[in-house]
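RESIDUES AND SHAPES:
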Amino acid sequence: MASSVPSIRTLSKLAVGGAQVLLGGGQIVLGGTPATCSNPQLSCHNTTIVQDLCCFNAPGGQLLQTQFWDTSPATGPDNSWTIHGLWPDRCDGTYDANCDSTRVYSNISAIIKSFGKTDLLDYMSTYWKDYSGDDETFWEHEWSKHGTCISTLEPECYSDHKPTEEVVDFFQKTVDLFKSLPSYEWLAAAGITPSTTKTYTTAQIQSALQAKRPGVTVTLGCKSGALNEIWYHYDVRGSVQTGEFVAANPDGTKSTCAASGIKYLPKSGGGSTPTTTGSGSTPTSTSAPGTPFSGKGYLNVNNDGTKKGCIISAGTWYTSGTCATFTATTSGDGFTLSSSKGKCGVVSGAFTCGSGVSTATAFTSIDGKLAAGGNAAWSADNVASGSTQQAVYAGADHSAALEIVWQSV
């Protein structure tokens, strides 16, 4: 692949599509606000010199919104693809990587929170997943490898630039594009659904996606004969922050799937199967409103009034992994809970699921919060963070106070 390039601060000119692109001043793009770029050109289509790389993506002129279908281990909801990233290609199938070592960050979550984008972070925690459970490191990698190579995200492309705001713009734009590309729904509409027995052809998959994005194809990725990636290609008119993304054909031959016999396997032991509405991928409840702890759902954890992760299948609190799907079953005046590990209960004071639970605990709900022994207080020794799980204890005897609430799926 092409080697890394220095920041646009140090370059005098770049080659794009055979044309020389001179760097210079130009108008400023305000991240998150309407662009001030006048008459912006479409990237990868210029035939003359473009001077302002704050209004024209170069050399990475084609942007790829890439998605995963992870099945073993499964990541994300059972009926949604997940985000891989947003990658700038050089309009010819090659790309630059790791373009600015001064903007490599190890605190992506903290950066996003510092700009008040908690909804963005919550969405990423569900749909931008690392198969090994280390989402934070995955996000850091995607920004440093790909985000730092997008010319319109350079700090000097902002008016009154606030440090790291371009990082938030990178993740926000990637999520916005992903929401507009519901691969699972589009494939299912054409009868292409996960199966352990069916196989599909490249032509069938391309046709299903072309029905929603006419005139262009995508890049399909397969591993061991099974579909596991889709790359959607765009050229951009203007900046990544505020420009127009125009669907485009792939800028190189990259698909790795066979012409036929393609498997599309179900996610095994993955997340939930939330329903979706419209063209996005936002989960909506399938239980009656106001009926917590009924049917299937997540056990979300609130700490200091903020949602922070959830309970996973063994009963521990985790902020980076896929939420376990629990089943609530009516029992007397309350209900029992079970996960893929088995029945759940309070064992030696800790919420536990699996072989260590001899008798399922009869839980109750108090103001929509999980309660054991009539007490909705829970606690942990420390706040869960990154890949570190925490045991959750009934009562408020430990240092981190928690509430556990139900999200129907």
User: Anything to note?
Assistant: The chain has two domains: 13-263, 295-408.
